[in-house]
């Protein structure tokens, strides 16, 4: 599949059908080749906003060799986050920054499909106008992010000077972020490093992947890991890990662990949700077992080293107890 963008408008998107994709349903083909979900692609096809060789077709149309699929995206509605009175677990706060322990299931900032109910909406209610504007109206104060189904610590800036300083520290690898993870399988070593570049998955555009092809975009990514515990249940082995980020790419720990053959327990995107243990304890495992438990950085104003920690959420702690003992 090859893609062409109109850079001035970011529309239309043109997708060329390649040999390996012949016979795919149009809605799935579009989803694989763009940022659209399959349901969003289906809706645009029904509206006539996606055409094949210039003509509208049904969403179950099977793409053919040489087809050109044109996606005409609608003009996005103006988006601005609004304050919402939502629970916040505030670990630390001063005039310059706030450290939050984010729960599983909360998105960090509004985006397509998640216009509200996010951490940013809660922060706007809690902090009022005292959030930095560097991230724009949708991401005020946001220095770094963690996935919706990952819990744990992140620091938010209350003014532009703090935001710019923390962003520089993050880029320079001077903000220390340590995660606790439960991986499927047993690691042979007690510690190690995954040094493998990460980029957008070449087929499934909603996923990331280790990309070593120089023709495809990727960025250096390094994860240091150490075994904290080993266990087994229902015929499968599991490993409790301490993972320290040297870089901070999207889905980095999830992608790197899957790349080693040990996806995170409960991670349906990267293959960690097919164990008997996960099936038996589905009520506890609502997403990947990954928790940002430790965060440290130098305070931009006071120059003091700030260290924070947060325990695993109760469900993940219960899973760890079942697998690795009390």
Rounded radius of gyration (Å): 22 Å
Q: Let me know the average pLDDT.
A: 87
- Which regions have little confidence, pLDDT < 50, spanning 5+ residues? 2-10
Beta-strand percent range:
25-35%
- The number of E-state strands comes to 16
Largest sheet: 9 strands, mixed
Overall morphology:
globular
According to CATH, the fold-level topology of the largest domain is: Pseudouridine synthase
CATH superfamily of the largest domain: Pseudouridine synthase
Name of the CATH first level of the largest domain: Alpha Beta
Our count of domains comes out at: 3
Write the element-wise H/E pattern from the N-terminal end onward. EEHHEEEEEHEHEEEEEEHHEEH
Tally of contiguous helical segments: 7
Into which percent range does the helicity of residues fall? Answer: 10-25%
The N- to C-terminal Cα distance equals 50 Å
Quickly give the structural class: alpha+beta
CATH architecture of the largest domain: 2-Layer Sandwich
């Amino acid at each position: 599949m090859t893609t062409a963008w109109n850079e001035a408008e970011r529309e239309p998107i043109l997708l060329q059908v390649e040999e390996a994709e012949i016979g795919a349903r149009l809605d799935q083909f579009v989803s694989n080749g763009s940022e659209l979900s399959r349901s969003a692609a289906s809706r645009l096809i029904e509206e006539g906003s996606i055409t094949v060789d210039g003509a509208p077709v049904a969403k179950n149309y099977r793409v053919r060799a040489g087809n050109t699929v044109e996606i005409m995206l609608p003009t996005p509605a103006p988006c601005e986050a609004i304050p919402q009175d939502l629970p916040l677990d505030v670990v630390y706060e001063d005039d310059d920054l706030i450290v939050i322990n984010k729960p599983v299931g909360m998105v960090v900032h509004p985006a397509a499909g998640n216009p509200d109910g996010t951490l940013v909406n809660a922060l706007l209610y809690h902090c009022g106008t005292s959030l930095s504007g560097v991230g724009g109206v949708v991401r005020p104060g946001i220095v770094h992010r963690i996935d919706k189904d990952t819990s744990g610590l992140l620091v938010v800036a209350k003014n532009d000077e703090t935001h710019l300083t923390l962003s520089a520290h993050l880029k320079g690898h001077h903000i220390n972020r340590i995660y606790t993870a439960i991986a499927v399988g047993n690691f042979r070593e007690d510690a190690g490093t995954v040094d493998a570049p990460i980029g957008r998955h070449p087929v499934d555009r909603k996923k990331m992947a280790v990309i070593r092809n120089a023709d495809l975009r990727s960025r250096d990514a390094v994860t240091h890991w150490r075994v904290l515990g080993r266990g087994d249940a229902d015929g499968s082995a599991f490993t409790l890990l301490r993972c320290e980020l040297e870089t901070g790419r999207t889905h980095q720990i999830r992608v790197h662990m899957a790349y080693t053959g040990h996806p995170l327990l409960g991670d349906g995107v990267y293959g960690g949700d097919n164990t008997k243990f996960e099936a038996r304890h589905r009520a506890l495992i609502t997403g990947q077992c990954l928790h940002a438990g430790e965060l440290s950085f130098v305070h931009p104003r006071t120059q003091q080293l700030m260290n924070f920690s947060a325990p695993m959420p109760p469900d993940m702690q219960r899973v760890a107890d079942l697998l690795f003992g009390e």
